[in-house]
Amino acid sequence: MITLEFKLKGKAQQYRVIDEMIRTAQFVRNKTLRYWTENQGVKLVDLYKQCAIMAKEFEWAGKLNSMARQASAERAIFAIQRFLANCKAKKPGKKGYPQFKKHTRSVEYKTSGWLLSTDKKCLTFKDGFAAGKFKLIGNRDLHFYAPDEIKRIRVVRRADGYYAQFCINVERKEEPILTGIAIGIDVGLNHFYTDSDGETVANPRYLRKSEKALKRLQKRISRKKKGSSNRRKAINKLGRKHLKVSRQRKDFAIKTALCVVKSRDFVVYEDLQVRNMVKNHKLAKSISDAAWSQFAQWLEYFGKVYNRTVIAVAPQYTSQDCSTCGNTVKKTLSTRTHICDCGAVLDRDHNAAKNILAKGLKQAGINLNTVGHTEINAWGQTDLYSLVATSTSKSTD
To answer: What are the helix (H) ranges across the chain?
Structure first.
């Protein structure tokens, strides 16, 4: 499944109709959740039936396409299923009880309620709201895909306009070019990541660089009268700035992950619990700005696309253990150099990256006589690829 995104160009009246569609989808989702909370033990399949009941009970809810109502109900169902799964697994802490939504920004259609033009440059919504025809603005071309391959269309409202996301049921695969290189990656705050070869990638710190502008825009909002049009304009400008920072961060994560996966056959990274790490209020902003989780997600995605082996390992003791002799050398976060009694002296993150690589090789069932990246280079390109392919097939079986 791939997603193509286009900006919707229409009239102001059409955008107001889309806002009504989004509010209706939010109403259906919350109403479905309310029915589940008031009727304990009801089957999740019965929640779909509530969509038809709501369409008869509320005339404006019936304007929304029937499959769009079902898609809105599915959002509540997925939240309920996630909550029940966490309870069954006895997940520590909060189980994620489903909450009612107040600020929904999207509505989702399935295979009906919309129509693509013949040249696939315009999108028309045909349900009761009659939002009309929108021009699709984007670089991607839908001509590569058949209409029956489009399974869903999601309309998203953002600070800079309205977008249509086409969910297309195709599998993306790229022919891999063998490199014979294995690598371990240690993410950090000083550098975005340090690999087991000692190479580093600078941390862009997009939020920190835009912090001054964000504070200035926030001050402008506080000076405006509440409920005024000038305040709404100021809020929109702030939202656009936050959106730009978010897009910069995503673009950097995608390009960096793609470069790592295309240039290596075997990639190992830390499975960090970022949700727990941001509880440290002194580092929370910097950790969120680094977007480690997003980087890991794109590593996994591109690993599947380019048929690479991408492994996540536990982060425990990767910084404390020596990558040369295996002894534990206690360090604080402020200690940036690893110094061991065996004579190993190297950067803390470089040492951690070597340990991460060794863990990944061990987890994949590849045994080494020595720990580190030097022995891997001695294998040669063909030997490494055969070992990685063998480990991948074992994990698949």
So the answer is: 12-38, 44-57, 66-88, 206-223, 229-262, 274-277, 284-290, 292-305, 348-363, 374-379, 381-396
Model confidence pTM above 0.70: yes
User: CA-to-CA distance for 64 and 55, rounded, in angstroms?
Assistant: 8
Q: What is the pLDDT of residues 154-170, one digit of tens each?
A: 999 999 999 999 999 88
CA 68 – CA 24 distance, rounded (Å): 10
Our measurement of the distance from residue 296's CA atom to the centroid of its chain's CA atoms, rounded to an integer in Å, reads 9
- pLDDT tens sequence across 172-212: 888 878 888 889 999 989 889 988 888 899 999 999 999 99
Contact 251, 291 (CB under 8 A): no
Tokens representing residue 231 in the block: 């305040």
Count CB-CB contacts under 10 A for residue 289: 19
User: How far is 158 from 171, CA to CA, in rounded Å?
Assistant: 28
Non-local CB neighbours of 57 within 8 Å, separated by 6+ positions: none
Q: In three state form, how does the secondary structure of 189-241 look?
A: CCEEEEECCCCEEECCCHHHHHHHHHHHHHHHHHHCCCCCHHHHHHHHHHHHH
For residue 12, what are its two tokens?
A: 């102001």
Residues in the chain: 397
